[in-house]
Design goal:
- By secondary structure, the chain is α+β, with helices and mostly antiparallel strands.
- The protein folds into 2 domains: 240 residues, Bira Bifunctional Protein, Domain 2 (BirA Bifunctional Protein, domain 2); 86 residues, Rossmann fold, CATH 3.40.50.
- The protein is 38% helix and 21% strand.
- It has 15 helices and 16 strands.
- Strand 14 and strand 15 form a beta hairpin.
- Helix 1 runs antiparallel to helix 5, helix 1 crosses helix 12 and helix 5 packs parallel to helix 10.
- The relative contact order is 0.12.
- The model has no long low-confidence stretch (mean pLDDT 95).
- The chain binds adenosine-5'-triphosphate (ATP) and magnesium ion.
- The site of adenosine-5'-triphosphate has 18 residues, from strand 6, strand 10, strand 11 and helix 12.
- Adenosine-5'-triphosphate (ATP) binds next to strand 6, strand 10, strand 11 and helix 12.
């Protein structure tokens, strides 16, 4: 019988990769905790309309990439393609706005998008993200960006920060009609997708990767020129605060992001070290979204980082606790060996019993493969072997052995 294989775009994360995954998430947790964010564990399935109303009907995510199906109760549900919409829904549904609206949440977990799989792009991928609700000041934007930078710094990842301001929905309306006029004049030079985008999502044309589109839109009107006075001031403040927090940035007037809900600040951390899928973390402000999803008017902002992309950039893992391998020299000492391992673990040492029965030679082979720093041979006595030096030492009881191991590990 042929073996069943995993679904295209889905992955098993194991071995060193699983360690990287866990290291990244643990590091993020530590840092977010320092900024006093609370964790929220969100559902994987949501009502489809949540994403239509937030991410946007015209976006690639909603039009092409969502896993949508009807459940046994006849509900139209979607596997979540991102975390912000769910976080906002949860904020509203659980009335977290009750005490003045101020709330800082973070989440971690799987997201699903039916995209073309390639390096750094999967159909199930994982994000760590954070959201701040109820704060209007650009101090929040600066601190959120500083937190993402702290995470990248802790993971020893160099990335470039690009920022832009999209202004309010009002500012954007004027701009979009100007942009449409411009794009219609250049229509024949645009790729097929972008020709359609002129009507559905003209902003997205500005960050099309096709050379012809880049060339044709070189002199397109720039959104920043259409911002209201208050949006301009907010953007200037953000830059001042970022400098104050030692965060280097590049202003990219074409940065638009692929989701409809953003207003004012948008940002991306990118790197050129992992090929075409170079955005490792991205986010921005979404001051209308809470209201748009039925909550009270609440300014908010957030970001998400792609864990798989961070994994491609992490090469060094912190040193792990050293392993002690426990080997009964023959089956008469199996029960003694189980007890020795049990006692080592009770003292917080990392121990593995060779659980395979057979010749001492075959057990030694397995012990070597496990890569222990020490091996303990269990017979009437306990013989400790230091695998680095080859030195051996005899012990009468497990307590003395533990004292010696604690000194050496
Ligand atoms: P991209 O431009 O790479 O498609 P995006 O704008 O769609 O990214 P967001 O929705 O902002 O991305 O998600 C935030 C981060 O999640 C991205 O910067 C990226 O690191 C990661 N990410 C998004 N889609 C995928 C995917 N299909 N596979 C792996 N990581 C992803
Ligand atoms: Mg995308």
């Amino acid at each position: 019988m042929s073996a069943i294989q995993k679904i295209r775009g889905f992955q098993d994360i194991y071995g060193k990769d699983a360690k990287k995954y866990r290291y990244i998430v643990d590091t993020a947790r530590k840092i977010f905790n320092r900024y006093n964010f609370e964790e929220i564990i969100l559902p994987f399935l949501e009502d489809v309309s949540l994403f239509k109303r937030s991410v946007g009907e015209a976006t690639d995510i909603v039009q092409k990439e969502m896993y949508v199906f009807t459940d046994k109760g006849g509900r139209e549900v979607a596997l979540r393609p991102e975390g912000t919409a769910s976080a906002v829904r949860a904020y509203i549904e659980n009335k977290m706005y009750a005490e003045g609206g101020y709330k800082k949440l973070f989440y971690e977990g799987a997201m699903f998008r039916y995209e073309r799989p390639q390096a750094g792009r999967y159909r199930q991928f994982h994000q760590i993200g954070a959201e701040i609700f109820g704060v209007d000041s650009p101090m929040a934007d600066a601190e959120l960006i500083r937190m993402v930078k702290d995470l990248l710094d802790s993971l020893n990842i160099q990335a470039t920060l690009e920022i832009n301001s999209l202004g309010s929905f009002e500012d954007r309306k004027t701009y979009i009609s100007e942009l449409k006029n411009f794009l219609n004049e250049k229509k024949e030079f645009l790729c097929e997708t972008c020709q359609k985008r002129i009507e559905t999502n003209p902003l997205r044309v500005l960050d099309c990767k096709v050379e012809g589109c880049k060339e044709a839109t070189k002199d397109a009107p720039v959104l920043i020129d259409y911002l209201s006075q208050s949006s301009k001031e907010r953007y200037e403040k953000l830059k001042e605060y970022l400098r104050q927090l030692d965060v280097d940035f590049i202003e990219n007037p074409r940065l638009v992001r692929g989701l409809d809900y953003y207003t004012d600040t948008v940002f991306e951390f990118t790197t050129d070290k992992i090929g075409a899928q170079g955005t490792v973390a991205a986010g921005g402000r979404y001051d209308n979204l809470v209201e748009q999803l039925g909550g009270p008017k609440t300014p908010a902002l957030g970001f998400a980082a792609g864990i798989e992309r961070l994994m491609l950039l992490v090469d060094e893992l912190p040193e792990e606790q050293k392993l002690v391998v426990v080997v009964p020299i023959n089956q008469d000492f199996n029960s003694e060996a189980l007890k020795v391992s049990h006692k080592l673990r009770a003292e917080n040492l990392k121990a593995e019993t060779v659980l395979k029965e057979g010749s001492l030679k075959s057990k030694m082979k397995l012990a070597n493969k496990l890569g222990g720093s020490f091996v303990v041979f269990v017979s009437e006595k306990l013989e400790l072997k230091d695998m680095a030096t080859g030195e051996q030492e005899l012990f009468e009881n497990v307590e003395d052995l533990i004292d010696t191991l604690k000194d050496r590990l």
